[in-house]
């Protein structure tokens, strides 16, 4: 399969994932609304459980929102013809990396270097 065909397949996967997230997000939003509208029992444990469920659903929805942003950015890069090109070195990011991490904007080597720089240039030392 050519790289162009592989990229089209990744686009389809991203679009499908985006639709799935939006559908799941609608369900989570309904659950969150129902949870907030339900009568609260004055029992502490039940309130704590409701608050935990509220927090969990809110966290899930935030995570989904971030993933949608990553997908949209990847789709924009596809539309402009720069998807799959490393922003640092300009070389093609291997298809295997894009399949595993379709939001990747760096090749593995540059991503590792960038991560080290973000951590202050220190590599984690393995425990002995």
Topology of helices and strands:
Blueprint: H1 3-37, H2 44-80, H3 95-100, H4 108-118
Structure commentary:
The chain is mainly alpha-helical and 128 residues long. Helices cover 70% and strands 0% of the residues. The protein has 2 domains: 81 residues; 45 residues, no CATH class. It is elongated, with a radius of gyration of 20 Å.
Features:
2 domains, 4 helices, elongated, mainly alpha, about 130 residues, about 0% strand, single chain
Structural class: mainly alpha
Average pLDDT works out at 86
DSSP strand count: 0
The low-confidence parts are none
Strand content: under 5%
In short:
The protein is mainly α and 128 residues long.
């Amino acid at each position: 399969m050519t790289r162009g065909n592989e990229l089209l397949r990744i686009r389809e996967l991203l679009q499908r994932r985006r639709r799935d997230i939006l559908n799941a997000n609608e369900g989570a939003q309904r659950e969150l609304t129902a949870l907030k509208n339900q009568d609260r029992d004055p029992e502490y444990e039940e309130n704590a459980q409701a608050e935990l469920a509220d927090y969990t659903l809110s966290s899930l929805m935030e995570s989904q929102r971030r993933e949608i942003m990553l997908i949209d950015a990847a789709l924009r890069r596809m539309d402009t013809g720069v998807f799959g090109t490393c922003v640092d070195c300009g070389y093609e990011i291997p298809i295997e990396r894009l399949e595993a991490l379709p939001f990747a904007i760096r090749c593995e080597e540059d991503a590792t270097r960038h991560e080290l720089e973000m951590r202050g240039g220190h590599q984690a030392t393995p425990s002995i």
